[in-house]
Design goal:
The chain is α/β, with parallel strands linked by helices. It has twelve helices and eight strands. Strands 2-1-3-4 form a four-stranded parallel sheet, with helices on both faces. Strands 6-5-7-8 form a four-stranded parallel sheet, with helices on both faces. The two termini are about 15 Å apart. The structure holds ligand FEC.
Amino acid sequence: MKPAVILMAYGSPDRLADVPEYYADIRGGRPIAPEHLADLVARYRALGVGEGTEPSPLNAVTEATRAALERALGIGVYTGMRHWRPRIREAVEAALADGADVVVGLVLAPHYSSLSIGKYRALFEEAVAGRVETRFVERWGTEPAFVDLLARRVARADAHVVFTAHSLPARIVEEGDPYADELLETARLVAERAGLDGWSFSFQSESPTGEPWLGPDILDHLDDLHQHAVADVLVCPIGFVSDHLEIRWDIDHEAQETARELGLRLQRIEMPNDEPGFVEMLAGIVRRELQAVTA
Ligand code: FEC
């Protein structure tokens, strides 16, 4: 057996000039209001994504994670981005060209939704097209090592912990999507493990698509916490694993600004990024999948 891993992530534009193409990919052909594009360009500029001299944080962290996972496993690990290059299909082609006969699909997002992991899965399977054996990891948000890693970061007695994740259109609830339940389960396990007294959950990063999204949004939630006499907040994004726009802008800038206006102290945990304990957890998941192939 010659296994390989397709490590999938959202992807991020390398340069400001890439933002229109990147946004068009996210929108999947649906129209983009010029003011939304201008706003997105401004956010990437604020993030430091410029003329291509500095990689976008998400792309840089994903490459560091890929390289570390490859070292940990001793097999080929190929990055496939959902919305940028290298594409998931390019990663699969590279793995197959290198002789892989079993490919494990692993997404750098812990919780399943048909609009998230389901989309990565479709791209992965379409790319492999039955040519080799596959395993696909649909969720890993309750992995004990992930829960432990987050619990260590929030185990502070003096702050109210707000767990967050990317919002999605609210229609997924009627469709029976497990996303919200899976997020709450991770939050509950981390809170229990860390022995937290006060914690809550809110969504973040809602997109202007004209339909209702899952709430509460973190900005409203901070207002609510303030009204309930909370003065010190620690944000723990459980639906993301790396530094990127939704962390550096939506939390570090937007939420921070709202907190300042309200007189709240807001801090956030360090993201797992490519830290060894996190990479070892990913390696453990892949080893389990490969054992299932040989069993
Ligand atoms: O740093 C970066 O360059 C990329 C940061 C980034 C991550 C991310 C993760 C998730 N998204 C999810 C769902 C949606 C849905 C829409 C949507 C739109 C955007 C836009 C940008 C963006 N997302 Fe994202 N997402 C990131 C970035 N996302 C930019 C477009 C402009 C904007 O809204 O700000 C709405 C699509 C539509 O228009 O119909 C839905 C989910 C995740 C977490 C799972 C994952 O990482 O794959 C779910 C990181």
